[in-house]
Amino acid sequence: MASPDTRTQLLDAAEHLFAERGYRGTSVRAITDLAGANLAAVGYHFGSKAELMSAVARRVVEPINAAQCAGLDRLLARTPDPAVADLVEAFTGPLFDEMQAGDEGGARTSRLIVTILGDPAEEVRSWTGPAEDTVRERYLAAFGRALPDLSPEELRFRMRGILAVTAVDRVEVYQQSSPTCPSPVAGEAARHWAITFLTAALSAPPTRT
Amino acid sequence: MASPDTRTQLLDAAEHLFAERGYRGTSVRAITDLAGANLAAVGYHFGSKAELMSAVARRVVEPINAAQCAGLDRLLARTPDPAVADLVEAFTGPLFDEMQAGDEGGARTSRLIVTILGDPAEEVRSWTGPAEDTVRERYLAAFGRALPDLSPEELRFRMRGILAVTAVDRVEVYQQSSPTCPSPVAGEAARHWAITFLTAALSAPPTRT
DNA sequence: ATTTCAATCAAACGTTCGTTTGAATCAAAC
DNA sequence: GTTTGATTCAAACGAACGTTTGATTGAAAT
């Protein structure tokens, strides 16, 4: 169906450059140069730069979504009403796992996610598949059962806080670490700090209105 | 020293467009068109597009920094060791004040801040003046006294969480609200939700290592 | 040997970008 | 009335952009 190599190398190069310089800051020529491919390869394999970005995003987000989903399944298999701390860990864990797994790949992944989410262009942000929404809704329901006193609106607010804290933290780690050494120590510490931080935040009593 | 109008109108137009489409997504031509000025006006008044961005950022951030500083002064005048909740409110308050103050200007301000902070280009992120660092260090010291059991590293992590939660929330509000109606109700509720959320998070016991 | 077809390639397409130029404008100073 | 100096203007600059084209490759199918 496709070349076994250049297509993947284009995805790799694009993921790297999009994370480092953003979508608009990365030219198709820079991608093909890094991939060792011809300039026209992007058009041939993906159709356009935007569709390449979409493919990159899908490749990055899918395993995270799957891991989050599996983590929730594992929790629910044990007990129908997991504790807040366990839910937080299951949700944020995959984001941290990505990091220490690869050679600086994981922090870059987070950087890429923030680059996408933070980009004002609809074109860049519009790849959010239905799978992502499904996972979020499932966690929302689980958190709702664990925190029954919270209004749906405030619960949504707090869940948004989870993503904000983890994503921003990972970006900071990526920006400060040298390109070659991602400092896994800081990454592992941040993982536990984030769970402590977010569990306390989620578990706070409802804001009295 | 300068025209009373076009310079300011360029700043207004640039602030609007940078917030909505990002730095790279905004052309100098779009700015001058919206400002009703000539294309060359940006070069004449600011030197370059990058310096215009720097001027916009400074104009947006300075009043926030000043308000954060004044809020801390007010707290310290009352007691040398303010409570965590009061510190959180003094720090996040100015970010929320900006919103309900103006006609959709405040949420846009937050959108702009996130656009800047999230932009991978060093050129865009490098405007952080010394004033910003000073304010952050002062709050860091105050939080340190209020939370003496926390290691400096974990305290820094938690303070980064404050910015992450407030900024990301404000962006969400901006993206969902119609351009004309920023829904100040949601803004006022989010303000209290954020204080609750962050106070609990900051006050969590130290992560045991 | 010929056909076939996906893949790669150099080259060019037209557009948009940030910036620069040099003349035109206009009120204040002389 | 003339000069001055700051400001605005239309026009063009070269560079970089995403995309398209049409020829070329090379291995598998006939």
Automatic annotation (TrEMBL), chains A, B:
Record keywords, A-Z: DNA-binding
Iron as UniProt keyword: no
Pfam families: TetR_C_30, TetR_N
The entry's DNA-binding region: 27-46
SUPFAM superfamilies in the cross-refs: Homeodomain-like (SSF46689), Tetracyclin repressor-like, C-terminal domain (SSF48498)
InterPro entries: Homeodomain-like_sf, HTH-type_TetR-like_transc_reg, HTH_TetR, PsrA_TetR_C, Tet_transcr_reg_TetR-rel_C_sf
Residue ranges occupied by any HTH tetR-type domain in the UniProt entry: 4-64
Protein name in UniProt: TetR/AcrR family transcriptional regulator
